Known about the structure:
Blueprint: H1 2-36, E1 45-48, H2 61-69, E2 74-81, E3 87-89, H3 110-114, H4 120-125, H5 142-149, E4 155-158, H6 168-178, E5 191-195, H7 198-207, E6 213-216, H8 227-234, E7 239-241, H9 249-257, E8 261-262, H10 270-279, E9 283-286, H11 289-300
Amino acid sequence: MKRIFIGLLLLLNVVGCANHEVIETMTDHANQDEDLSLLSPKRIVNIAHRGASGHAPEHTLVSYETSEEMTGDYLEIDLQMTKDNQLIAMHDAELSRTTDGDGFVKDHTIDEIKILDAGTWFNEEHPQQAQPVFNQLEVPTLDDILERFGTDTNYYIEIKTPEEYPDMVEALISMLDDYHLIGPDVPKGKVIIQSFSEASLREVKKAEPSLPLIQLISYNERAEISQAELARIKEYAVGIGTNYKQLNQHYVQKVRATELLVHPYTVNEKKDMRRLIKWGVTGMFTDYPDRLDDVITEIQD
């Protein structure tokens, strides 16, 4: 009887150790998954605003390539749509600020836009950072960008209002599908869609529920947000983006308490980056992804 009892104890000990190992393994995997997830609230994501636009002409392949070298987590892309329904990377609806063209993007074909100079303006405005390679850069299409960077890169894409571009969401999702950037095997957060338009975000959610969404908050809105607003946003989005100058610690903590991410824009000074991280933001847009990388490394060390 004594031998049986000892045998049972040994068996229970083996089973207990096995269960303990399983639990530890599961915990390790869970921690690894959380650490690796771009949507983890414990991670600070480095969003290269229009590429590394503090170092090179915004929304050009050179700007995006520079941000990749500076270890940004995301390439941020603003989309406009041409007269012939091609998606291009450009912040403004008009051509004049960042090219030598005039008029609205929507009134020009892709062929007309491709011949424009999208880089010389940067050399003229930033002579200390001017480089000959920036002259005569092309405006890239979204197709150009995805072809160049593929599935090795993460994308943070802004779409416009359905009133401006009623076909933009359908065209975007179709292209993301073509480049294998959506689907059950794609890591969550590989592509994030942002917009000031709730209607556009809800359209994306209906068309492709797997895409995480960020509700942008208008620059001119008050530095407050109600629980009702947060509850509504949480119905369709995983977080908010707002101007960092509108933020305070209470605002950040209030949003975080609802389990939404906070990605302020556009943060270029290290002192502001440090303060926002201390307040609890989960990432930020910056023209200088190298600076934010320095700050994140400094904090982690």
